[in-house]
Amino acid sequence: MCGRQLLYKHDGKRQGNDTRLLVTIFVCLVGGVLVCVGFWHIAGTHTNAVYVTVLTKKVLQIVDEKFLSLGLDSSKICDGWVNRNIRSEKLVKLANMLSPGYLRVGGTLADRLVFVPDSDTRYSSLEEDLKEKCTPQNTSFFNMSASDWIGLNEFAQNAQLHLLFDLNVLLRTDSQWNDSNARVLLNFSDKRDYIINWQLGNEPNAFRHVFGISVPGETLGHDFNNLRELLDEYPRYKKSILIGPDVTRPVQRVSLEESPTLYLSEFLKVANSSINAISWHQYYVNGRKAKLSDFVKPHVLNILSWQISAIKASMSGVTLPMWLSETSSAYGGGAPKLSDRFVAGFMWLDKLGLAARMGVSVVIRQSLIGGNYALLDDLMNPLPDWWLSVLYKQLVGRGVLEVLGATEHVRIYSHCSRHENAVTLFGMNLSNLPSLITVSGLPTTSRVLTYILTCDVFSRLNMCCSMKRDCNLTQTDLCHHFNHKLRTLQNL
Ligand SMILES: *[C@@H]1O[C@H](CO)[C@@H](O)[C@H](O)[C@H]1NC(C)=O
Ligand SMILES: *[C@@H]1O[C@H](CO)[C@@H](O)[C@H](O)[C@H]1NC(C)=O
Ligand SMILES: *[C@@H]1O[C@H](CO)[C@@H](O)[C@H](O)[C@H]1NC(C)=O
Ligand SMILES: *[C@@H]1O[C@H](CO)[C@@H](O)[C@H](O)[C@H]1NC(C)=O
Ligand SMILES: *[C@@H]1O[C@H](CO)[C@@H](O)[C@H](O)[C@H]1NC(C)=O
Ligand SMILES: *[C@@H]1O[C@H](CO)[C@@H](O)[C@H](O)[C@H]1NC(C)=O
Ligand SMILES: *[C@@H]1O[C@H](CO)[C@@H](O)[C@H](O)[C@H]1NC(C)=O
Q: What parts of the sequence cross the membrane (predicted)?
């Protein structure tokens, strides 16, 4: 009904040499009531008509305020990147635009890290040395200095992010976690009033494959109970969030790892009352083998759906929030020339939509910087997924709404808007045909704000100007706000 009243045409002008694909966010902003009709492109004779209905009466899920969060790999401490860059003002500004969020510092190298406050670490500038030092194949420990730790904490504070730090679970004595280094870190942090949330270990079900060591789920559960007791000794950390066990993604075929779902259920039998959320890692594909088409195939994007279901099924009776504590497009550091391009936005936006829809509370993007899947390049300039994340933060609120009628190829999600009395719809076109989307279920309104993001799939530049172009469809406060922030950034 409302569809006929409010159609906005997108002129479909193309930039670059391949704009077959679109990521679109369209938004309805209202005063009191609302309607939204999204319109991608109308051209040619064959049109894929999609009719979706948004059910606004009931909120299906409420995600964490910090739903979209950021990861920083522990290898960035090891290789001296933190030492050299964490105090950059530009980095603080860019990260701050993604607040509120967690800053998770973890990864394979978390289980190699020892906190040595007075260590005087000299970082080699030779890439060869770092490659030997900061890889999982190197089983020797490395030191995190006081300066690194202070830098990380101050960075998180200045960017208004909440630090989530992954402690080393491979400091062990007689097959038990040895907490003596954690005590040093806690004492140091407590004296400086640092607010921190915690993890213990990284992908423990793959320890045998990565480090040649096995820590069974039940044993890890006892280690977590010990950590909870240790945190309870500090009034400041008694209420800290502790999440675990950070198992790897469920896979369909048996692999080098122990099954993450079996591992998780063994762990939960022991540690369910010590943790605040169940955490696991998720990637769609192998970064070394990924192809362009993987990023836009519905059956690849749907992998996440059965993975979430598999993890839920192994929670047997435990009702804790679920976090994707490390997640990105492709594992092994991301896919070169794909995971940092415009096309990566399809996986990222679909993940944000699907995870929230299925009840995941927090999604931690690997990574803010470092690897092919980073949000910022090595010079700390924003990549397309950073822009997408900023837009998401500005527009998408915590309440998840049901959308009926979306298809495998025209994927649409809906949340309450970040701003009051509004609904946000976002989605993407993976279809080979131009798609006309008609949205119903929303009462009539006079204000609709639309953002259409479209680009050469291989673009590595700032999100294309189409976003700004559509901003003048309706001049609203939100739009001004976003433009203002963009201008601020250009002055960095
Ligand atoms: C780590 O610190 C300890 C104690 O200061 C020192 O003995 C050791 O050599 C350091 N290790 C590395 C790899 O720098
Ligand atoms: C492991 O890293 C240390 C520095 O932390 C380095 O001295 C050593 O050569 C590396 N070992 C291997 C096998 O690469
Ligand atoms: C834990 O490790 C520390 C340092 O390596 C060691 O001094 C201590 O004896 C260990 N604790 C236990 C209970 O073995
Ligand atoms: C941590 O602080 C407590 C209380 O001040 C002290 O008893 C303990 O020895 C300290 N532990 C370490 C490892 O520094
Ligand atoms: C939760 O942990 C307790 C021990 O703390 C255990 O007795 C109980 O069976 C666990 N619940 C589930 C559903 O695993
Ligand atoms: C959706 O993408 C296809 C190519 O994948 C393109 O031909 C079509 O025009 C797009 N639809 C819209 C509405 O832009
Ligand atoms: C956007 O602004 C330009 C320049 O002011 C104007 O020509 C154009 O019609 C506007 N577009 C819309 C949809 O209002």
A: 21-43
